[in-house]
Amino acid sequence: MKDTIYKETSEPIKPFEFNQRVVDVFPDMIARSVPGYPLTISMMSVMANDYIQEGSHVYDLGCSLGAVSLAIQQGLKEKQCKIIAADNSKAMIDDCVKNISCEHIEFVQDDILNIEIRNASLVVMNFTLQFIPLEQRNALLKKICQGLLPGGALILSEKIKFDNKAEDKTMNQLHHAMKELNGYDKLEIASKREALENVLVPETIDTHLQRLNDSGFDNVFMWLKCFSFASLVAIK
Ligand code: GEK
Fold it and tell me: Could you tell me if the CB of 112 is within 6 A of ligand 1?
């Protein structure tokens, strides 16, 4: 279903929520809004194979409609693992349970701050940390690192901001231009931006790298970037 949530709305803009209205249009919304999203998902399954260990757990934190879990499961080569896909939006998890039947994926409706991470060879947060309150982010990353097996990895994708004002302005302009090319009008783009203010809180790449190093990861690097959207791998 096409995302028209912010088209010609006369109501005041409310803070963004992952409710049923968003769930109904989510695949269209994320594909038209996040640069490189389809590539991120398809390459995730290739990346996953490098890190997943036989008999371990894989966590997809903030799984939305399960795109990452499905890509990983479909790309698995001869390894057996259990995928735990968690999201705190009831509407998202209800949709996953209704539409995806895979004995290797367990869907959990809970805040990722409550999820116990153990025996993990791979943890993915694909555009989720940006919605976690800033003061909770350090503890969450430490918990993830502690729950990973040696050689295991976290794949962290985020919208990022830039200290360099010209760079920040250019990346935002390019992102908005891409959204226009994908059929959103200027009012829709501005309204969504307003709704996400203080809900999606981006940080700089340096802040992410520093936090990942401080959380106990040994080797941290960027594997994908498109405008103000980047994905990092952090290996324990
Ligand atoms: C994808 N990874 O398709 N606990 C659990 N879930 C949360 C929390 C939280 N505290 N906060 C937000 N979420 C997906 C896309 S979307 C990204 C991830 C986006 C969930 C929220 O309900 C939503 O489903 C997801 O994180 C973020 O690859 O829409 O920009």
Answer: yes
